[in-house]
Design goal:
about 200 residues; single chain; 2 domains; SCF_F-box_component; mainly beta; four-stranded antiparallel sheet
């Protein structure tokens, strides 16, 4: 059971993130509350070892960028998006962040005019935090209803007329996953294996 947070139950959207602090063998929870105005956005961090919350400084601006949080010094940092990543002969339906084979990725889906074929841009940051390392792969893909993220090996999870499928952007192969109930997919998240113990030393194998 967590202690009461400092921000309380403010009106607005709330986002949470769970992270492991490897240097101190500790766990932290980041809580961000978005108000009507970006200037009113607030953030706080819960630390397991102290069983307490504390406020952290967050600054939001009226521009598009990736906001990262360093669990070591508990500071936010901006990562700029690829320049002109929307300058393609299509309109953008949606975009989201993902992890592809351990690298930060920005996936942008658009639709051509006839709405039969979709355009998918996959931007991968080869060196984390270095804007110049963004590289792009551009592919055509059949129209689909929704994207659910990526698998560990870099395949896209999309929902089309065949249901939930995994799509390989390298080979362009599509694998039907035969999953009827997709409600659980929206609650999945990228994770990393860890042998850290809550009340003991790390175990190495």
């Amino acid at each position: 059971m967590l202690p009461p947070n400092l921000l309380g139950h403010l009106l607005g959207s709330v986002a949470h993130g769970l992270a492991y602090h490897s240097q101190k063998n500790d766990f932290k929870i980041l809580r961000i509350v978005f108000q009507r105005s970006l200037a009113d956005t607030s953030a706080e961090v819960y630390t397991l070892s102290t069983d307490s919350w504390r406020r952290v400084v967050i600054s939001m601006e009226e521009q598009s960028f990736i906001l990262s949080f360093d669990v070591n010094d508990e500071r936010f940092r901006k990562i700029m998006l690829p320049q002109n990543y929307l300058d393609e002969p299509s309109y953008s339906d949606f975009e989201h962040l993902a992890m592809i084979k351990g690298s930060l990725a920005l996936i942008v889906f658009g639709t051509v005019i006839d709405k039969i074929l979709g355009i998918c841009q996959i931007w991968v940051m080869r060196e984390y935090g270095v804007v110049e390392s963004w590289t792009k792969k551009w592919i055509l893909i059949n129209w689909f209803h929704r994207s659910w993220g990526c698998t560990d090996n870099g395949e896209l999870l999309i929902e089309n007329a065949n249901g939930l499928v995994s799509f390989d952007p390298e080979s362009l192969n599509e694998n039907i996953l035969a999953i009827e109930d997709l409600k659980w997919v929206g609650y999945t998240a990228n994770s990393m294996e860890s042998l850290a113990l809550l009340d003991g030393v790390n175990v190495n194998v």
